[in-house]
Amino acid sequence: MNDTFRKHTVQLQFYATAPYPCSYLPNELARSQVAVPSDLIDSGVYSQLVEQGFRRSGQFVYRPWCDTCSACVPVRLPVADFQPSRTQRRVAQRNQLLKVRLIELTFREEHFQLYQRYQRQRHPGGGMDQDNREQYESFLLRSNVSSVLAEFLQDGEVCMVSLIDQLDDGLSSVYTFFEPDWPQRSLGVYNILWQIGLAKQLGLPYVYLGYWIDGCRKMTYKTQYQPIEGRVNGVWQRLEGIAS
């Protein structure tokens, strides 16, 4: 951690969780390093934590801290160098009539209903498909940093919602859910393309996409956006030669 990071986070403490089953690699145990107290983590501090490989879920700020595994790689897209593929250009064309509205983190019943449909159809049995309103709000609507909901609408109806954090050097794509009955629209792909465009408009150099694990099918989509950078051995660098 550099001196600036230390000065801004001198009161933060970091602890490692007990081992728990890994969500991505079978038969592996994971740990997280957690930054506390959460009420000291404002947008400036969080920007520095993200640069160091941290992520947030609600007010829980963490990074992988496993005993024997370093498979989780923080990744980000340098938006100035991004070149959409032919498939991505087609997705953008298919969804160009969607309207987007940025709103505060407030509960809306139609968002919650969409979230439940998405979880039950896309991630059945994963636990989040049983989330109640309190769990939904804790996960998506509680933040100590600069956050917005991007609401995507077609003909006045919400078809996708994305939680986005604004950092000092980019946007952090926290979580997105969308209408699961529209697979031909590739809404998740369009969402990332839209966030890249928003970062460019705001003059921000990066879109942070969380973690990537080589060989994990759930995370393969992240490498479809090129070029992509990963934080490897404490240094952000281009990830070359990875399968997309």
Provide structural commentary.
By secondary structure, this protein is α+β, with helices and mostly antiparallel strands. The chain folds into 2 domains: about 5-70, no CATH class; about 75-240, 3-Layer(aba) Sandwich (Aminopeptidase), CATH 3.40.630. It is about 25% helix and about 30% strand. The protein has an 8-stranded mixed sheet with strand order 8-9-10-11-12-7-13-14. It has a 4-stranded antiparallel sheet with strand order 1-4-6-5, with helices on one face. Strand 2 and strand 3 (about 30) form a beta hairpin. It is globular. Mean pLDDT is about 90; it is low at about 1-5.
Compose a concise summary of this entry.
The chain is α+β, with helices and mostly antiparallel strands and 244 residues long.
Second CATH tier, the architecture of the largest domain:
3-Layer(aba) Sandwich
Task: List segments where confidence is low: pLDDT < 50 over at least 5 consecutive residues.
Answer: 1-7
CATH topology name of the largest domain, in short, is Aminopeptidase
How far the N terminus sits from the C terminus, by CA atoms, comes to 32 Å
CATH class of the largest domain: Alpha Beta
Record the strand order, biggest sheet: 8-9-10-11-12-7-13-14
The residue fraction in helices comes out at: 25-40%
Shape descriptor: globular
Derived structural class: alpha+beta
Which percent band covers the strand fraction?
25-35%
Element string (H = helix, E = strand): HEEEEHEEEHEHHEEEHEEE
Biggest sheet statistics: 8 strands, mixed
Which whole number gives the mean pLDDT? 91
What is the C-alpha radius of gyration, as a whole number of Å?
Answer: 18 Å
